[in-house]
Structure formats: C-alpha cells, structure tokens
Specification:
2 copies of one chain form a homodimer. Helix content of chain A is 40%, strand content 26%. With 292 residues, chain A is α+β, with helices and mostly antiparallel strands.
Chain lengths: 292, 292
C-alpha cells in the first residue's frame, strides 16, 4: 500500500478570478469538443440501423452554491455516455474538510471539473472514464485522470491508450507517467474482488508544482490526449459484430463498475458529501448491469 | 435522526456452546423451510413455460474461521433468490471492533445468521429481504428484520406483510413493532435519493433483554412469520402478466437496490470488513439492473 491517497501538505494560496474563469472555460470547451467527436462517431457508424444519438443538455443547480450542465447521449455506438461540467462552491462539512488540504483556517471550497463516462453498446468497444478538476480551498490543486475498462481487453488498445497519456505526461515531467499510472492501478482496483477495474491509465491528485500555469497546461494536455485517443479506439471496433455471450460478459463487467463506483470512488463520495446533483453524480452508472 | 444506529452498552456475558448450536440449527432449519416453500412456488406457477427452478447449494469457508452455505435458485418465479446461512468467528479489526458492543476487553467475535434476498422476474411480485443473526463478542445480541421492496406497491401486500411481522412482534413486547418498524423506515432509506428503499417492515439490532431464551424465541417467530407471509404475497401475483414498461420500472428500482446495498447496507459493510465470502456478501445483488 502506497501513500497515494494521503492528504498532502500543500502551500496556502488561491488562484485569481481570471484563472478560475480560464479553467471553467477550458472544461466547457473540452466538453464541446468531446461531445462533437462522439456525435461524429454516431453518424459514421454503419453497421446498425438505429438512428445516431445526439447529446441532450441538462443544467442543474447546487443548493449551497454553483451548479453544472450534464450532457447525456443514448445512441447506437454509445448505449449511454455522460459528460458533466460543473463549478460548485460553498462550505464543506467539517468532517469532510478534515480530509482535504488547505482547510485549517476555514472550510470554504470552490471546485470546477469535467467528467466523462462512456458505456458503449458493443462489448468489443471499451468503456472509458475521464475526469479533470481544479479544487480550491485555502490551497489549490489539480486532479484527474483517464482509464479504460474493456470487457475483452486487447494489447493494441491498451498500448494506444497508455501511449497517448504517456505522451501528455512526458511533456510536463518525466516522472508523471510512471507515478500516475501506478496510482491509477492502485486506485481503480476492487479489493473485495481482488481484481482491477480495467486496464488502467493515469490518475493524479493534489497537483500543485508551484507553477499554476504549467499545472493547468498539464491538465489541458491530458484532456487533449484523451480527445484524440479514445475515439480512435472506438473506431477500431465499432463496426464489428459481437456474440450474445460477449454481451453477457459486458453486463457482468458493468456490475463490477457499479461496485467500484459505489463502494470506492472518491468522486462519488465527494459528490454525495458535498450535496452535488444526484443525477450528475450517478451519471457514471451503466445503463444496465448484471450480477451472477 | 434517531439514536437507532448508536452502539448501546450491553451487559457482558456470552451464550453456552449448546445455545450457539441451537441458534445455528434453527437458522439451517429455517433455510430448509424457506427453500422448500420457494421451490414449491416454482412448481406451482403455471403461466410460464420455463422449467421450475431448484436451489443449488454452495458451501464456503472463511479465511480466519468459519464459513457457510449459499443456496441460490434461478427459476421462473424468482429470477434470482439467494439464501445464505453462515457461522463465522475470529478476530475483528480494532477499527471495526470499536463500533460493536462488548469489545473493550478483547476483539474476538462469533456470528451466526441467515439472510435471504429474492428478486422475482415479475415486476408485480415484490422483492424481499429477510435476515436474522446472533452476534457474540464479550456481550451478545440478536439482530435482523424483514422488508418488502415492490416495484409497484399496493396497500394489500403492505398490510399483509406488516401485519404478519406485527403479530410476531406483539407476542414478545407491545413496543417491538412500532420501534422496529420505525427503525426499518430509517434504515432502508436512500438519503442521496431522498426516497425509501421499499415499503418497510421491521429492523432490529442489539436485542438483549437479559432473557436469552425469550430473545431467541422472538427471532424464531420473525423467521416463521416471514415464512408464512412472503409466499402468500408471491402467490397473489405470480400468474399475472406484466408490461414491458413495468419490467423497465423494476430494473430501475433494482438499480436503487444496488445503490442502497453498496452505499449504506451494514450487512454488506460487516461482510466486507470481516473478510466474508464475497459471493455470499454480494448474493443480494439483483440479477440485472438499469440506470437512466
């Protein structure tokens, strides 16, 4: 067991209003780019007769401060894909504040982020999760990551996905990829099943190098790498036919996904603890799942 | 918020070997009776062409001490029903021990119980949960309960179910039913959804009146009441046809069931904390579920 999850000591200091606006604007822009790419995949796919899906937007407000916009698409490539952008702020419960850096003087917080979870119809197209966020208490930091959850994994997809994230990491520090890959493997693990959730990716938190601009660039590069690589992986498999048995395997795998999200996921816990929008928090749930 | 969940002070004192054996034997006997009743319902049901289900038994051992037997049936009335009897013992983690009575001198425990979760095929037949248990640390107590989770609730079923449990309670104390009904309503509630899991029943814990025999009789009466009333409710609905829309509603309701079990259920937590058999702990998961 590493110290990955431990609350670090971060320097006090918060970003300016302009900086926060720039972060928010980036997350919204990335959302638009991602939604366009995924709608394009719906248009391009030929092997299904159904109509291509379109994202529907649903704004929501948070009691206590802030809100966000959920974009949900139920299509033919993507049985369900949700992209949520949100900026929330207010007061943390003292119990929860104690777990975060920068909360010794007061318990106010501001958090902006984007998260995406895609559950494709085809068991041959991997499910995926991506999230980046900026959190401000008395300190401030970036967090996020991306990880791939195939039903039937194959080395080519895994290499492509990891390669893209490594490239994004390497532009910023030669240490990032190894560290954040290891953290991802540790984090996306179901101890009660003694099995990983998927084939990993990267996971990072408490990123504050002292150079805010640089850290923000890193987070943007992770978003851009994801925007490139995931659609590419989808294209490789989206026209293939699959068997009923492969579909069953996918539904069981999705059950594991549910277990992870409800038993272990910190994003889910953060959302529930800060009274976020329940639909947005549980947007990551698969459209259907099975247990044996 | 009441004090229902609070750790009470219970008198020190543990039951004899004979007493423990009597408890274990009752749970096994109740298991056999329940399984027979449910197999009988499978035989009796006429409106489906499929073959009637039969329970399959699967023994398991617990690393650290004890084990149990899972009985699972996948039939035509019951899409999935699991009955688990177990007797486990050993050492509690100090963190978990701190939450239980009777652990100030040492952290050994012994626990025996039966739990049943039924997920019927038909959205018109309510899902149900029943559990009774005896736990021994330096102190000892009984716990358990039964609650009904219909997709489409109706007053007749609710009244029948509550009536049977009230009768069992009333034989032992005029206070039990109201208290344990309220505890059930409090416990089987999804705060993040602001909705109850089902239509309730009874939930009790830390039962130790000082008269062990009487407490054990109470737990037996709860089991017997359940054995009578649930099959009766199933019979009222099991031949009716249902619509696709009602089935969809059921799958969404099952999603809520999953959320409760993984986010809130103490039995699940106890199992995961004490390293129980993962298949047995998650036996309560529905065979299939959906999220919108």
């Amino acid at each position: 067991m590493t110290n990955f999850g431990k609350r670090p000591n971060l320097p006090e200091g918060i970003p300016s209003d302009q900086q926060r606006i720039a972060v928010e604007e980036w997350f919204v822009k990335l959302r638009d780019l991602l939604c366009s790419e995924m709608e394009l995949l719906e248009e391009k796919q030929n092997s299904s007769n159904r109509l291509p899906g379109r994202f529907e937007k649903k704004p929501w407000n948070r009691l206590g401060g802030g809100g966000g916009v959920m974009s949900i698409m139920k299509g033919k490539v993507f049985e369900k894909v949700g992209v949520n952008v949100s900026t929330v702020y207010g007061d943390l419960s003292s119990e929860f504040a104690a777990k975060l850096p920068g909360t010794s003087k007061n318990t106010t917080f501001w958090a902006s982020g984007i998260s995406l979870v895609a559950h494709p119809y085809s068991p041959l197209v991997p499910a995926v999760h991506m999230n980046t966020r900026h959190i401000v208490t008395g300190a401030n930091w970036f967090g996020g990551g991306a990880d791939l959850t195939p039903t039937i994994s194959n080395n080519a997809d895994t290499a492509l996905f990891h390669g893209a994230l490594k490239e994004a990491c390497d532009c910023h520090s030669s240490e990032y990829y190894e560290r954040y890959k290891a953290w991802c493997d540790e984090y996306f693990f179901l101890p009660h099943r003694d099995e990983p959730r998927g084939v990993g990716g990267i996971f990072f938190d408490y990123v504050n190098t002292g150079d805010w601009k640089e850290d923000f660039m890193f987070v943007q590069d992770v978003g851009r790498a994801f925007l490139e690589v995931y659609p590419e992986i989808v294209k490789h498999h989206m026209e293939k036919s699959w068997s009923r048995q492969e579909r069953e395997q996918q539904l069981i795998k999705r059950g594991r996904y549910v277990e992870f999200n409800l038993l272990h996921d910190r994003g889910t816990q953060f959302g529930l603890q800060t009274g976020g929008n329940i639909e947005a928090i549980l947007m990551s749930m698969p459209p259907s799942a099975k247990w044996q």
